[in-house]
């Protein structure tokens, strides 16, 4: 497609979620890349404007650079379906399930996708039983947040109530998950077009300071190290990439996404979660994986935009 074929494009960024700050960084980078490619792209913050303005102002498609609730949970996707404005990334169902860490695990387990053991928590939970099931350390996090917001690594049973209370500030649903010691990997998935198939890009291996890949180390430090090629055994990487595509499809995802994976020293692995609107900042992982295949940041943005569609199948 030529830049002119896209027509007027809105880059949705910001929004009302806890990840607004990162979304604005992602969105501005995507906007600049599309404009560099001469796409008629414009910033659009749904926290400050009505979505119906997309229709009023003649936008032909939307690049979703929103993160977290409203932008990544099927909400804005449903609104765009109603407006009949094609958008990038997964549709209503794929977005909603993937944003829900609990239901993602239920689907993955049913499909044979390996994922860490978990327990759903409430204020009256038997903390000793949680430890007996999951061991220590373990991870406590909100079900519907990303970017490690509200997440705590718990090393003592006595710290579980406080970890639960922190996560519960962000979400009524809180999950405790088995901690997986090993190498942290991420698998980006792209769709090659309407007649092609989903493909997993080369894995990125992450080494964060003290193994703590938190909000600060994800977005605002240069101390985290990224490796692509990942350096893991080729046959293990190939298997993880193949399973990543299956994990993407079984959730009903489309367009593009990113699966987070932990690789144990014994060569087994577990899928942690699926991101349907991954970060596109200077520290983000999908652009790193794309670069390893020779795809520039700007070309990546154009390829993602070219996949904008509706759940009905109507394309831009």
Automatic annotation (TrEMBL):
The active site is at 19, 147, 284. GO terms for molecular function: ATP binding; D-alanine-D-alanine ligase activity; metal ion binding. GO terms for biological process: cell wall organization; peptidoglycan biosynthetic process; regulation of cell shape. Pfam families: Dala_Dala_lig_C, Dala_Dala_lig_N. Coiled coil: none annotated. It is found in: Cytoplasm. The keyword Cytoplasm applies. Keywords: ATP-binding, Cell shape, Cell wall biogenesis/degradation, Cytoplasm, Ligase, Magnesium, Manganese, Metal-binding, Nucleotide-binding, Peptidoglycan synthesis. Mg(2+) 2 binds at residues 273, 275. Residues 105-306 form the ATP-grasp domain. Binds 2 magnesium or manganese ions per subunit. Belongs to the D-alanine--D-alanine ligase family. This is D-alanine--D-alanine ligase. It comes from Usitatibacter palustris. The gene is ddl.
